[in-house]
Amino acid sequence: MYKGYTDEQLVELLRQGKDKAFDELYFRYRDPLVRFVYIRMKSISVSEEIVQEVFTSIWERRKKILLQKSFAAYIYTSVRYTTLDYIKSHTISDQYIQEVLDRNTVSLNSYNGTEDSIYYEELQIAVDKAASLLPKKSKEVFILSRIKHYSNKEIADELNVSIETVKYHITYALKFMRTYLGEFN
User: How many C-beta atoms lie closer than 10 Å to residue 111's C-beta?
Assistant: First the structure.
């Protein structure tokens, strides 16, 4: 419907509340932005999460968006800053979560001292508790993705759901885990 429109025309229509204009911008920029973020993050799911966050922000502020340059410059700048914020606020907790999940293959004795052992035991308990609080489907997807290391396609096949549903549950679970484990940052 809006394929022939320029980005700036779409932004104006978006300000007027035309959700199909938003859809067109999303489909124009989603994949290139995910690739852009992937270069730095090396994770498709994280890249998709960051891009989704930026588009969610655009949707929430759609009536207030003012472009000083092109929409492309605006969205790439937004994604770049969101990626930097993600790195600052999530890398540490993601590393801790992954270390706890990988703990079965690493002995606690390899950590430096009793304090680290206590910290990792507390973190393990917190990760287990957070996982137990996830909704059933998100918990299943999280376990298959982060503990059993299934690909999104394998999870979709296993649970008989779409890949987009898998991505949604992974994103939801990771956000929930980060929020729940905030004290471990």
Answer: 16
Annotation: CATH topology of 7-90:
Rna Polymerase Sigma Factor; Chain: A (1.10.1740)
pLDDT tens sequence across 94-115: 555 666 566 544 444 444 455 5
| CB < 8 Å & 24+ apart, contacts of 66-71 | 67/8, 67/11, 70/7, 70/8, 71/7, 71/8, 71/10, 71/11, 71/25
Q: Which CATH class is domain 107-184?
A: mainly alpha
Q: How many helices (H) and strands (E) does the chain have?
A: 8, 0
User: What is this structure's pTM?
Assistant: 0.50
